[in-house]
Each structure stands twice: as C-alpha cells, then as structure tokens.
Amino acid sequence: MTLTLADVRRIASDIAQQQHPSLDVIGVTTREGSTTSAEVILAIRDCYVEPYRVVISLSRQVSEAECRVAVLTQLGEHLAAPAIGRVSAEGV
User: Fold this and answer.
1) Which among 31, 77, 80, 88 would be 20 to 30 A from 21, CA to CA?
2) 30-64 tens-digit pLDDT
3) Domain 5-85, CATH 3.40.50 — does that match?
4) What is the DSSP string of 59-79?
5) Beta pairing class for 23-30 and 37-44
C-alpha cells in the first residue's frame, strides 16, 4: 500500500503539533523523479531565523505507523538544532 500525499500531510501535521506548537506543515510534494517518496516542508513560526523551513523526505510505501516513526525521528533531529532552541517564548 502506498500512502497518499494527503495521508503524509495529515500524519506530518499531527506529529509536528505534538512535538512543537510552532511547527506548521506548509506543503507536501512528491520527490523529484520518484512516485513513491514525498517531501514535507514545514515552517517554524517565531524562530529567530526567519523564515525557518525544514524539509524531510519520506517513503510513501510504508504503513501509517512506520510513516509516523519516520516523521518523529526526522523532526526530532531538526528540533535538536540550535536554531529551534532559540524560538521566542512568544511563539510557544
């Protein structure tokens, strides 16, 4: 089974809001040259680096549970970056 882009967006949005209230999914698209992968573009509101964008790449040929783990893992890596630690308190 292949997840749709809408599925990937829903999953990424859910995980993003659980991990960091300032994260917004602003787009999901297929990866160039691939019909089974997706790129998710997220924006971090009120970050000292404006605009701050995060792009994660995901396989769409996984279960929803596996996709959730992949989103959680990749966002965790980005959220550990120094710029995220400096998000203003007003945006949280």
Assistant:
1) 31
2) 988 888 999 999 988 877 666 788 899 999 999 99
3) no
4) ESSS-HHHHHHHHHHHHHHHH
5) antiparallel
